[in-house]
Amino acid sequence: MNSKILLVEDDLEMQDLIVDYLNGYNLDCTACLHPKQALNELKKDNTYSLVVLDLMLPDMDGFDLFKKIKKIQNIPILISSARNDIGNKIHGYELGADDYLTKPYEPRELVLRIEYILNKNSKQQIQINDFTIDKENNTLSLDNYPIDLTKIEFEIFLFLIEHINVNVSRAQLINATSLDLDTKDRTIDTHISNIRYKIGDNPKEPTYIKSVWGIGYKFVG
Q1: Residues contacting 6, CB < 8 A, separation 6+
Q2: Sheet with strand 168-169: strands edge to edge
């Protein structure tokens, strides 16, 4: 079965080019011109594998649309934008973007980056150290012993695992989970504390989830 890609792009010429190119690589691409159209599409269809998102859109900035998409589905998002400054790229990655591709680019590069993201996300079971994470069933085990995490705790742990040895901010964790956008940093700290307790990670000298002063946390593998 071909992977379904949702393209949000208001340049019709660019839209047609990308749709035709992706379809030629067995990627079933559906295009939306307007942010509201994209949101409605994701609300009625949860079988999309990835969103290719432009940032300069009518009636809604792409970053605002990014946040709304994540509240509907925790789906991979590749930003495709002419905004090539480092500030926009940093903000995109802080929100949880899987990739940021600056226009203009060759369509083949877009295909390669999509395939990389899809391949990474298709691995439903992750083995890190003594942890086994089952993404399909949202379960975690340590040395084959099941760890009972809440939905939010699992989302946080999974994001840390998928960004192993990388400093992750509290804002990134909020945006990558089903937490409300106005969630306070202290709430994240409480969830991290609960996770540490459940996996037996000493909060004073943690082995796995390290605190990064002034930033957030890092899973060390």
Answers
A1: 29, 30, 31, 32, 38, 41, 42, 48, 50, 51, 52
A2: 168-169, 216-219, 209-212
Cα→Cα distances 210→138, 202, 214, Å:
23, 10, 12
CATH (domain of 116): 3.40.50.2300
Cα-based distances in Å from 111 to 3, 21, 22:
12, 8, 7
What is the CATH number for 167? 1.10.10.10
Q: Are residues 135 and 111 in the same domain?
A: no
Q: How many angstroms separate the CA atoms of 101 and 55, rounded?
A: 11
Of 56, 138, 51, residue with least CA distance to 103: 56
Same domain, 98 and 137: no
Say whether pTM exceeds 0.85.
no
Statement to judge: residues 15 and 108 lie in one domain = yes
Residue pair 128/143 in contact (Cβ under 8 Å)? The answer is: no
Q: In which residue are the tokens 């690589």 written? A: 25
Number of structural domains in the chain: 2
Mean pLDDT of 112-117: 94
Per-residue pLDDT reduced to its tens digit, 99-114: 999 999 999 999 999 9
Q: How many CA atoms lie within 13 A of 45 on its CB side?
A: 14
Query: 11, 55 in Cβ contact below 8 A?
Result: no
